[in-house]
């Protein structure tokens, strides 16, 4: 086994702060979408904020998400990380197909993962597509549609340009469901390392344990 | 010789004749002084005694030299007219308290005083017989040891004032959540106790005009004690006055005292039924009437009966919360409970037969407080003795529309330094007395948060008139008034959320009906698709994980 340095300290800190924000937004977002959730949660003995606080937390956590997103964007562009790790190239398409085939079939046949993370490229093409294109777009939609909700009177002209508050709400909620979907799959995919907690451990310490490649 | 003459003159001078304290006690050795007069010598009060031997009956001491304020008040009091003086009550030569009122008025029966025992137990004599400079009620809430009461549970709406509805909710909370707590009420007054008036204060001074006991404060003791001002009317109920009765609905309709008070007995529903037969039967046949067994007068004060249109939502809630003190805790399921009760009355939900409307009103901001505009404000803006209808006519000859109200608001703001804003309540505008519906199982936001809610079709602008409020009908809704539309629209977003009912209806539909039902869901499709997607993803992950455990060989 060898140790590969994949995640810089900055990215690790950003990741866990972002995770905390997303968790807060998910809990309070569910409360806003389905009022009464707090009563159900309390009946199960789970603490959640009351509705008024949920609205406030959602608002300020939303701003925090916007700040975190901006930080990530600036950091990955300036550090060259986007080019190195996130940029999806046409040459990635055949690998992406192989990667998808591996998750669906190859894994169960005992085949080896066609992609191995290296400091030169830590994401497989499926991850590149998700983390480099789809997720930034979804988060951007969430932020752009979420900010006008923070003060509907101040942003009234913006809201009108979106086609009214109902359309704005629809876009925000669609993006939220997609984000939640990613969150769910992301959580499951963390278990796909060499050992079940390897990916999580790597996001804490920065190093991932990988099998040594056989010499030919 | 000259020297002897000088010595003689000096010895004969009056300076030697002024008695000293020691001289006085030579004869009056048994005389003592109260603690407050310890530093005062005999001559300071008994100024007439300048030489020995003094007159057998010297003039009374001159208390006014030091106690001028008390003395001046006393001179105008009924006690002076009766020939009393300071020492009639204050015995300064004995270390005992001043005589209290009962020393002379021991047989004062107060036979004609209503609620005699309560008044005598709670008030001091000068509260009514004097002219108190300050007076009020302090309700001290004593919590069990170690307990503390959150300020938000006392002042639900956070406006720094406890109104009647909040007090009812607090009483319920103390009774059920703070066993062993108690409320000590103190009716205090102090100030000029020497100006006893010939006649006691009229009942109206406390119970109507509120020139005495006009303030009340709740003091919450506990780990972090605090005080909040509160409505004094909670402790000192309003008194039926003949003057005000004429302004009430009953008074205006020509109802006289003897129409209801046919005997000395407390009036029963049998009296009300004489005029309100239909309403009476509606109410008595309802579940509330049968189980609650409340009399008409339990909710309605016949001496102050106002049209319900004169009450705002909070004042209406105060009527129900007299018995339903637990209304806050019963509505914990409702998000923003306090906010809802600011804009709704109980019967907005619990009386389906009543007609509800969206009633708009203007309010002015003064400091941190917002209060509804009154007739004086309307006069200030549009002229003395103005008729409200003529104000409305300035903006439209027809029914008011959103823009007309916007223009009216703009003009009010010009006259009132931009302090006026518009607000709205959902209240009953046509009462039906059946309050049987508890709606225990119906907790659906969309009943109100929907463009289909009935009150959107019935809107009024409430303006304060000289004698009564005027409800001017508003065409359509005021929702088009900018930027109110935005605010209203956000509350209608509830319609876009899928509910449990929607899902269960979908599950109970036959497969062939699904398509048409799903098409009709509109924006709710987002939730439906989102939830399905999440469930599928979750199932996918679970199946994948299971296969990994069972199949993958490492």
Task: Give a description of the structure.
The complex is a heterodimer of chains A (216) and B (554). Chain A has 216 residues and is mostly helical. Helices cover 69% and strands 4% of the residues of chain A. Chain A has one domain: Transmembrane di-heme cytochromes, Chain C (Fumarate Reductase Cytochrome B subunit). Chain A has 9 helices and 2 strands, in the order βαααααααααβ. Chain A has a two-stranded antiparallel sheet with strand order 1-2. In chain A, α1 runs antiparallel to α3 (51-78). Chain A is globular and about 60 Å long. Chain B is of the alpha+beta class and 554 residues long. Chain B folds into 4 domains: 2-75, no CATH class; 113-239, no CATH class; 347-496, no CATH class; 500-551. Helix content of chain B is 39%, strand content 13%. Chain B contains 29 helices and 9 strands. In chain B, strands 5, 6, 7, 8 and 9 form a 5-stranded mixed beta sheet that branches. The chains are: A mainly alpha (216), B alpha+beta (554). Chain A binds chain B through residues 33-36, 39, 51-52, 103, 107-108, 110, 152-153, 156, 159, 164-166, 169-170, 173-174, 176-177, 180-181, 184-185, 188, 191, and chain B through 332-333, 335-336, 443, 445, 483, 486-487, 489-490, 492-493, 496-497, 523, 526-527, 529-530, 533-534, 537-538, 541, 544-545, 547-548, 551-553.
């Amino acid at each position: 086994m060898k140790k590969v340095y994949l995640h810089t300290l900055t990215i690790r800190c950003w990741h866990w702060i972002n995770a905390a924000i997303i968790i807060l937004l998910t809990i309070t977002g569910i409360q806003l979408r389905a009022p009464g959730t707090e009563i159900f949660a309390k009946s199960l003995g789970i603490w959640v904020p009351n509705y008024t606080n949920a609205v406030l937390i959602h608002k300020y956590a939303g701003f925090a998400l916007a700040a975190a997103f901006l930080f990530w964007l600036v950091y990955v562009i300036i550090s060259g990380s986007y080019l190195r790790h996130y940029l999806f190239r046409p040459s990635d398409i055949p690998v992406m197909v192989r990667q998808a085939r591996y998750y669906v079939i190859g894994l169960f046949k005992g085949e080896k993962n066609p992609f191995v993370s290296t400091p030169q490229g830590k994401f497989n093409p499926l991850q590149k597509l998700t983390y480099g294109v789809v997720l930034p777009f979804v988060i951007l939609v969430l932020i752009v549609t979420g900010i006008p909700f923070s003060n509907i009177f101040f942003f009234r002209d913006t809201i009108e340009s979106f086609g009214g508050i109902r359309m704005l709400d629809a876009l925000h909620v669609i993006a939220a469901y997609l984000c939640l979907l990613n969150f769910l799959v992301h959580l499951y995919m963390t278990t796909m390392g060499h050992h079940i907690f390897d990916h999580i451990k790597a996001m804490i310490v920065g190093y991932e344990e990988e099998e040594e490649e056989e010499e030919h | 010789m000259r020297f002897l003459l000088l010595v003689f003159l000096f010895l004969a001078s009056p300076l030697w004749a002024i008695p000293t304290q020691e001289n006085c006690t030579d004869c009056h050795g048994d005389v003592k002084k109260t603690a407050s007069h310890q530093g005062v010598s005999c001559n300071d009060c008994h100024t007439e005694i300048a030489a020995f031997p003094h007159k057998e009956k010297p003039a009374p001491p001159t208390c006014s030299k030091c106690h001028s304020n008390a003395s001046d008040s006393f001179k105008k009091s009924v006690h002076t007219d009766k020939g009393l003086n300071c020492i009639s009550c204050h015995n300064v030569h004995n270390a005992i308290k001043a005589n209290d009122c009962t020393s002379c008025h021991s047989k004062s029966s107060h036979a004609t005083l209503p609620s005699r025992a309560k008044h005598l137990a709670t008030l001091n004599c000068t509260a009514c017989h004097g002219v108190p400079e300050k007076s009020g009620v302090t309700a001290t809430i004593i919590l069990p040891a170690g307990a503390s009461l959150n300020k938000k549970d006392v002042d639900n709406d956070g406006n720094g004032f406890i109104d009647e509805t909040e007090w009812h909710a607090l009483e319920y909370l103390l009774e059920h959540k703070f066993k062993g707590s108690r409320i000590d009420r103190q009716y205090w007054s102090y100030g000029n106790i020497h100006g006893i008036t010939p006649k006691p204060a009229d009942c109206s001074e406390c119970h109507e005009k509120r020139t005495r006991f006009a303030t009340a404060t709740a003091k919450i003791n506990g780990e972090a004690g605090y005080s909040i001002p509160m409505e004094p009317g909670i402790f000192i109920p309003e008194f039926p006055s003949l003057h005000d009765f004429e302004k009430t609905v009953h008074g205006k309709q020509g109802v006289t005292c003897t129409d209801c008070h046919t005997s000395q007995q407390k009036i029963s529903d049998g009296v009300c039924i004489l005029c309100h037969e239909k309403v009476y039967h509606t109410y008595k046949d309802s579940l509330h009437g049968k189980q609650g067994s409340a009399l008409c007068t339990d909710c309605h004060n016949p001496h102050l009966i106002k049209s319900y249109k004169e009450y705002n939502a909070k004042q209406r809630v105060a009527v129900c919360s007299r018995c339903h003190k637990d209304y806050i805790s019963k509505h914990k399921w409702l998000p923003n409970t306090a906010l809802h009760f600011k804009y709704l009355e109980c019967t907005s939900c619990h009386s389906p037969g009543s007609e509800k409307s969206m009633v708009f009103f203007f309010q002015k901001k003064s400091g941190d407080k917002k209060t509804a505009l009154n007739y004086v404000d309307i006069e200030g803006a549009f002229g003395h003795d103005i008729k409200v209808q003529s104000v409305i006519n300035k903006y439209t000859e027809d029914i008011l529309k959103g823009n007309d109200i916007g223009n009216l608001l703009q003009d009010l703001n010009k006259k009132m330094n931009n302090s006026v804003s518009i607000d709205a309540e959902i209240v009953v505008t046509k009462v039906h007395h059946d309050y049987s519906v508890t709606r225990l199982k119906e907790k659906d936001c969309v009943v109100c948060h929907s463009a289909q809610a009935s009150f959107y079709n019935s809107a009024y602008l409430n303006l304060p008139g000289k004698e009564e409020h005027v409800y001017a009908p508003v065409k359509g809704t005021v929702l088009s008034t900018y930027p109110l539309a935005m605010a209203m629209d956000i509350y209608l977003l509830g319609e876009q959320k899928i509910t449990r009912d929607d899902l269960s209806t979908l599950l109970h539909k036959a497969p062939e009906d699904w398509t048409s039902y799903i098409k009709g869901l509109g924006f709710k499709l987002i939730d439906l698709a989102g939830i399905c997607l999440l469930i599928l993803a979750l199932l996918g992950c679970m199946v994948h994980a299971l296969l990994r455990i069972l199949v993958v060989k490492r």
